Amino acid sequence: MKTTPGRNPDGTFAKRQLGYRKKTCTSCGKYLYLGQFYKHRKSRNHPDGYDCRCKECRRKEKNEYYAKRRKVPDGLRLNADGQAVEKRGCSVRLYWGEERLKDFRRLFPFNTNEDVAIDMGCSVRTVIRRAREMGLEKNPQWLQNVWNKNIALARGVNKICGNKANLANFIEAGKPHRFTAGRTRSTPDDTRQ
């Protein structure tokens, strides 16, 4: 007669005898009954169907794991770079105190956003967002100088490449560019629809 696991030879269900079988915990080294171990799927490492560590050791391990990763309370603190950060819920932002805001107001009008971001230790997106919140704008004279430098650079590159380098090829500063429906660069003006 063929027997199946969990049944007696006569076909009746066998009582589990957990209280009589013992096993050694790999973590603490105690020799304990199987009732002191969590069930685990059978595998090469767990041939008896129970975990290799006792319940007490598993609880200690999980408590340590959650203690390391528990939620940090909201508030101000220093991050790994030594910058003051403000934590609210799931978001962590750089803390912008009065001195930091004063530096930002001084730097923003006369520097590129990338340079301000490097000096302030934040992203370009943060610089743009903070400037909008504070109502700051770039200095118009500084912008005109930057535009003139870029035009001079573009003319130099055009001359090197052999293209015509006159002002008509460039969009005028401050003038909004408008696209006309049905017209592309390759289409002459007289064939416009």
Keywords:
5 helices; 7 strands; elongated; 14% strand; alpha+beta; 193 residues; three-stranded antiparallel beta sheet; single chain
How is the topology of this model organized?
Blueprint: E1 22-24, E2 31-33, E3 37-39, E4 50-54, H1 55-68, E5 75-78, E6 84-88, E7 91-94, H2 98-107, H3 113-120, H4 124-134, H5 140-161
Antiparallel strand pairs: 1-2, 3-4, 5-6, 6-7
Helix pairs in contact: 3-4
Q: Can you characterise this structure?
A:
- The chain has five helices and seven strands.
- The model has no long low-confidence stretch (mean pLDDT 78).
- The chain has helices at 55-68, 98-107, 113-120, 124-134, 140-161, and strands spanning 22-24, 31-33, 37-39, 50-54, 75-78, 84-88, 91-94.
- The strands form three sheets. The protein has a three-stranded antiparallel sheet with strand order 5-6-7, with no helix packed on it. It has a two-stranded antiparallel ribbon with strand order 1-2. Strands 3-4 form a two-stranded antiparallel ribbon.
- A hairpin with a 6-residue loop joins strand 1 (22-24) and strand 2.
- By secondary structure, the protein is of the alpha+beta class.
